[in-house]
Amino acid sequence: MPQYAFHIDTSACSGCKACQAACRDKNNVGFDVKWRRVYEIEGGNWEQKDGVFTSLPFSYFISLSCNNCGNPVCVKACPTTAMHIGRNGITVIDSKLCIGCKYCEWACPYSAPQYDPTRKSMTKCDLCEDYVITGKKPACVDACPVRALDFGTYSEMSEKYGTENELHPLPDPVSYDPGMIIKPHRDAARAKNENAVVADKKEI
Amino acid sequence: MEKDYISLVLFTVLSQTAVGSLILREILLYPANNFQHSREFRVFSLLFTGIIIAFAIGAAFLHLGKQSASVHTLRNLRNSWLSREILFTIAFSLTVLLYWFNEKFLNLNALNFLLSLTGIITGAGLLVSMSAIYMLPAVPSWNSPLTPVSFFVTAAAGGMSVLAILYAGYGPGLNRIFLVILSLTILLSLVSSGFMVSSAKGTVILTLFTIRIATGLTALLLIYLIYFKIIPNKIPPLTVLLITVLLTEMAGRVIFFLNYHKSGL
Amino acid sequence: MNAVTEKTRGNSFSRRLFVKLSALTGALLLRKGKKSDDTASVLSGYLASGEEKIIRTGCPAHNCGGRCLLKVHVRDGIITRIETDDRPGDDVSDPRLRACIRGRSYRARQYHPDRLKYPLKRTGKRGEGKFERISWDEAYDIMHREISRVIRQYGNSALFIPYGTGSYTNLNGRWPAVRLLNLLGGSLGYYNSYSWACTNIATPYVYGTLNTGNQRQDWLNSRYIILWGWNPAEMIDGTNSAWFIKKAREKGAKTVCIDPRMSMSAVALADEWIPIRPGTDAAMMSAMAWVIISEKLTDDDFIRRCCSGYDSTQMPKGCENEESYKDYILGTRDGIPKTPQWAEKITAVPAATITRIAREYATLKPAVLYQGYGMQRRAYGEQVVRAGAALSAITGNIGIPGGWASGLASQAGGEPFWTTFPMGDNPVKARIPVFLWTEAIIRGKEMGAAEGVRGADRLDNNIKLIWSVASNILVNQHSNINRTIKIIGDEKLVEFIAVQDNFLTPSAKYADLVLPACTQFETWGVEDGWKYGEEVFLTPQIVDPPYETKSDYRICADLAKRFGVWDEFTAGGKDEKAWAEWIINEYYRKTRFPEMPKFKELLESNAGVYVRPVSEPVVALAAFRKDPGKHPLSTPTGKIELFSKPLFDMKQPGEIPAVPKYITEWESPFGSEAEKYPLQAIGHHYMPRVHSTHDNNEMTMNAFPQKVYINETDAGKRNIRNGDMVRVWNDRGALVAKCKVTSKILPGVIDIPQGAWYNPGEDGTDFGGNINILTTERWTPLAKGNPQHTIMVQVEKYRKG
Fold it and tell me: Where do the domains of chain C lie?
């Protein structure tokens, strides 16, 4: 089974959250969970000299859902095997087995699994499995107004976009092998140097 | 981190206290060759431990979204530390139950030895698996040696405080060295959480830290007063001691859970 | 039988589901004791079953700059999913028309429990928001009685249908109401808009036309693009505009965003962000001109052939000795050379940066200087429009592929029609500037040319009756809410107010009669582009109007019956669908798109849209550039007028100069008002809303809550922390809202995204976060437009009581 992967062009993402809305609409998820999250990275300072500003802030956005890791720590963590790699090579949740203990949420460095109090179960982006098996792309990908998202098998994506999967402040991908290929924003290096953080975490 | 971590605070602190009380009981019981310990002490100590672990399990259930599915939790023993923790919890609880039954009704010495050994192994297993659960690379603030240290310290401090009550009620009287070790453990607990709090910010955490220090110091003061026999070595003051120790550990655990944040994001 | 008046409402099944949805949402509200976590939109996905139909339609875009394609899934008469354009191929000439968060979140608006369901009559004081349910019969009686009375008592010019874009297809919105009143003798007209009043008036003074924009695909031919106060990623100034900029960058164009905020476009579309003090853009533009002129980077041949008023050699007759554009820039008359050093103090942009941008713009040709609209919704918005156009002119970036003439920049080679529904002739000839409707209420009879009245010397009436269709302008979107509500709250001034809408908006609360209109998914319509685009959307009726709601057209048709003009109004019995057919077959096919499929064909294909691909983008003013003698502009000189004699003749050089100038605004950081109110406030167009539409949409607002954006420095001085509630006030009013402390806005400036619903507390403080509680009713000198971004305010941490 091939590993699926998202391409995320953070140099073009405007943070408009069309992907998130498309995801909500398609998957009928409530506001307690966000299967696709748009992180706003913000940093830098203002320096005023003689009435003009010299040093400037910077910012970029990262849109993340589930990266369908090659080494899914969520699957390892789950006590009930509710979280498992399904028939199509996509990590999914069997909600009949799920006890809602949230251990997968802790284990996932990308916060992909989230508890839905309405369904009393952990929930997670399933890469729009129903779309993918018919050859369509996930709802979020086909929503992006600037085409900053793409989706396919890892080999297709890496052929098109390379293999870059590191971006500040995402966790070191080595131990997870995420299905995620990133085009860094022009300020990514600066953000790393200045250790920029996610603005307004509560509002992701 | 959501509000429901409170049940996890209760579960971790109470289960660790239960494990600590059992293991310490066995350590203290056997070198002394049983003679100093009354039958009441032996039965009541197990009953006490059993009650504490029962409360802990109850709290753990509150944390679950869907209790009905909990029968499935042992399906991933191969990979999941949580599965293993649950296995150890069940095994430990059953051991305590059987142990108590034997001490109270059967009194088979050979069985006692076996159950004592199982209790120590499952209890230690519970502490180890619980530590492994929280040492997640995705949560750097938990992924540190402080996590197992704080769990074992809770087990020691809580366990000793429980035994102190039992000694006062049914035992041969309190050994002063025991009090010294307990006070050192509490000190260690307070010091270790100092490292934890330094990585966290916010008024809530500072308040909790204050509560933790205040209750911890109260516990130390109580031990001091008992040590120098200013107040009597009786159940009521020792119960207060247990409560202060549990409070200080719980405050520490709340800080621990509030420290939950993902690397980077 | 005629479908317009006879057909009964809704089928009971879909109505039952709607009731169920609303009830469930209500139950959730009760259970949670707070805003529900799951809106009806989410629930509708669970509830409906049965066979799925997919209908392609245009997004109910309201007054969004984009027009996108939606794929609406329907089961059991309930919309269960909204996807977007998935046509095969996705290239620059015919890209997918992908909807943003507003379109994708439409179910939450469609199935909102607060939808108006029945006609309502006011019971309390006007504005108190107390109503009782009445029948449509009674509602029509009241409308008929009041309109007839006002016509009899005052005349038709006392009737007014305000500007409004809450429902906005070629068929829905205010157009049917205008048609009806025109049949009854007309109503007071207006011209201009709230969106771009200044550029709409100022652009023709330079170019003689509004069609100064190339088709957008042409941006891919540019080497340098300045997004000046322009934020297409968020306001969606044309579907795919942001994507075209991305494509231009991929081809090597350098992009610069000049904006007080690090907007979404500054982050995603620009190589560089240059923060600038609001209201000082004309100063930076003038300084750029100074650099370009003094470093001889001008396109002298183009200036000589195509411009007028650049220097003393080309001044119009009768103005030979007046100050030319070059005179102003070099300071030969006023003694102030408009150098980067001069501009630095005004704009807060370092002189070196201004110089560099000027050089880049003048040398990396062809170049685009795209002007956003926020900078012209200001005190002297006319100046910035002309100053930007002047830069395009002196660098010769006009009439060439990859260039851009600035100004309003409606698409050359045919622009969208906005509305094609025939409204007939208005027998009342007088028209007011749209922004001055409150003036026309309190002193209409005194208004004349000085107030911009057109079509008559002066008005013969004050406005006495307002019929507001799909408009939130009565309270929410007009300047200075505290003043406005005093005026419309006075029953002696406006004697009758009817509001027709989907929700009980802040404006609807001031109505005497509320008429429940259906959404665009519940009736027929036709949409085309906004400013750009080669698309025509057919928006069929997808679901039935719930409860007793009706389409705007049907309400007017029913009313027409009362007035005895039903036949004329419906043109012999046309219903909504018949009008949609007429618009496509008789209008679009006979004008702009003769090749497009007929209505029936388009409907049956379920394509939702007809698109004419753009493979060779039209370049505005190309013929003029080639041969200005043969293809003159319709300005007095036939050329690009850097000096305008008509403006000179107005003899108000201080506020309406003949050459574009930077003028210090009437409220600015440079005046004494700044002592009391030191912060500039702007109100940008916010991602989750289209003006005030969607402010009650939980799905969009959950993603982008209303906030006051304030710089860390300004927040620090005031002891304000991120997430605090802050109070923002000036002499006109006060609002309270949550704040976001950010580095992404210039110090000294706060941003209160416009369009939040006014929600007054007991003392009149607005808790909705509506910027119009702070804005001024004063109008701009030339366009008589809205200067809603020119305000000074103070901010403090909010404390109850």
Answer: 3-110, 212-409+624-648, 673-797
Q: What ipTM is given for this predicted complex? A: 0.96
A147–C246 C-beta distance less than 8 A: yes
Chains that touch A (3 or more CB pairs under 8 A): B, C
The pTM assigned to this predicted structure is 0.92
Fill in the amino acid letter for C502: N
The answer as to whether B264 is a domain residue is no
Are C464 and C150 in contact, with CB atoms under 8 Å apart? yes
CA of A60 to nearest chain C CA: how many angstroms apart? 6
The CATH number of the domain covering residues in C673-797: 2.40.40.20
**Does any CB of chain A come closer than 8 Å to the CB of residue B133?**
yes
Domains located in chain A, CATH noted: 4-67+125-203 (3.30.70.20)
Strand order in the sheet with C78-84: C52-58, C69-75, C78-84
Most confident option among B68-77, C368-377, C528-537:
C368-377
Neighbors of chain C with 3 or more C-beta pairs under 8 Å: A
The gap from C-alpha C611 to its chain's centroid, in whole angstroms, comes to: 24
Cis peptide leading into residue A113 (ω within 30°): no
Assess if residue B263 is contained within a domain.
no
Q: Mutation target for C interface from A8, A16, A61: give the one with most C CBs within 10 A.
A: A16
Which pLDDT tens digit goes with each residue over A30-69? 888 999 999 999 999 898 888 788 778 999 999 999 999 9
Stated as kind and residue range, the H or E segment containing B216 is: helix B203-227
> How many domains would you assign to chain B?
1
Q: Exposed (0-12), middle (13-18) or buried (19+): which is B151, by Cβ within 10 Å?
A: buried
Residues of chain C contacting residue A202, judged by C-beta atoms under 8 Å apart: 723
Please say whether the dihedral angle defined by the alpha carbons of residues B102, B105, B106 and B107, taken in this order, is positive or negative.
Answer: positive
> Which class is domain C212-409+624-648?
alpha beta
**Going by beta carbons, is chain B in contact with chain C, meaning 3 or more pairs sit under 8 Å apart?**
no
Q: What residue in A sits closest to B263 (Cα-Cα)?
A: A171
Q: Which residues pair with C751 in a beta bridge?
A: C682, C709
Q: Please report which confidence band the pLDDT of residue C30 belongs to, taking 50, 70 and 90 as the band edges.
A: very low
